[in-house]
Amino acid sequence: GAGKTTLLNMLGGMDACSSGTIMLDGREISFSGPKDALENGIAMVHQELNQCLERNVVDNLFLGRYPVNKMGVVDEARMRKEANDLFRRLGMTVNLTQPMRTMSVSQRQMVEIAKAISYNAKVIVLDEPTSSLMAQEVEKLFQMMRKLREQGISLIYISHKMEEILRISDDVTIMRDGQWVATRPAKELTMDEIIRLMVGRPLTNRYPDHQSHIGAEMFRIENWRCHHPLDENRLVSKDVCMNVRKGEIVGVAGLVGAGRTETMMSMFGHQYGTHATGTLYLEGKEVHFPSVRSAIDNGVAYATEDRKVYGLNLMDT
Question: How far apart are CA 268 and CA 223, in angstroms?
Fold first, then answer.
């Protein structure tokens, strides 16, 4: 709520400025929209991804700028070659024919970053780009950003993760309540100083001691196996067992593609659950959730990683 994204939306042509000026290459600019900003060298990677999920990777990369051959027909061979060259240059392995809806949020995020780079932009704005990336993918992103910086491209990196800011930035601008607070070289800042500028006062004891009281078993799964709803032969999780007690936080870890999300969704009564076997216990009683509604009615909630796709359950009433 500090105004970071709103400010950069003005730079990207999505919101109009009510006052003030924006300068690019020493001249004042005012964009009529995102396309105008792109044509002038400003590319944005949004935290909320806006992609055509039914289309494949190549179509999304060239959306709104399909190259045509001499006959005026979309040149798909050129699109595939340029996409291959782009991902190879960025050190990314991507199935170009894969529909976006079958990709994880982190994979779609990396495609969106590649798309911004493909515009040969002078300035690239990245809005919370690591919010859905694994540690290994964050490292790849930072390597990519360093390469772009060496090529003379300017990068604006929006984040509330102070560790990342200090690692990747040359200069840091801090905002609070919609107002500029300070701009300083990153090497002159510490974590505590950034926090002080963000909240307006020193913040001590950031991680106070807390004693959890672990109670009786609340939730348990045994021998849980889940197949992909679109491919019965694709096993996304195998023989998963888990025990969660009252007052306890259980972490589920794994690389992209390990089946973490699919497994959790299947337990919650999502369509993955119609292709799952195993046993669920809630407060010691065996349960079965044939739908998301039944899981909710039994006191189970699910905070999705992709709220735009799964945040509303419109088909299950």
Answer: 16
